[in-house]
Amino acid sequence: MAALMKQTPAHSVVNRDLLALMPTGTNGANGARHVVEVGCMHGALAAAYRAANPGTRYTGIDIDPEYAAEAAAHCDTALAGDVEHFDEQAFDVLFPSDCWVFGDCLEHLRDPWRLLRRIRERISPEGCLVTCIPNAQHWSVQMRLATGLFRYEDSGLLDRTHIRWFTRITMLEMFQQTGWRVETGIARRVSATPPAELMHGIRAIARAGGADPEQAAADAEVFQYLFKVVPETGGR
Stretch 121-129: mean pLDDT, rounded? Predict the structure, then answer.
């Protein structure tokens, strides 16, 4: 994929909401001795996390070699490659680890379900996974569909490198299907106020489809969802 399509342009913006979901320190039930971030880009999140948690080992992975090389300044280990193609030996090197981070990354994977299962099989019962996932049910996407102007862009909800699309419901289903339990969920509303007429239409469509119109309207206002999930049989 890297040879066919350049990845989303890297940036140095730290997702503070994602950072707040990550375990802190190295001791106790809420600590992390080893964090693995998939899609680390320039290492902005790694730098922010390690500034507050210098004792935690941090591994960054990015499919773009240039991004991984820059992230190396902020990670103990920075790997360039497609984590979905890591063989068993390469994957086992990433363990033991206490926290896996996917900041706007799962939607770029061919089979995020398989990867989440692989992690779940190896992570300790006290481990966790934190994610930020764009919402395909956002009102702006629904408006593009209704007008036929569903055009890919360089970044954002219609990022041309997105392979998978998720709504709140299908995000929760993905975690449940792969052995994870949601411990914390955050809805981020970061874009403009939707037109009232559009929201009326979204409610009408939901009603016609047998869904709760108010829940559909609420979901349409969310730009991204953040989750901290833990193994189904345990948690922090």
Answer: 95
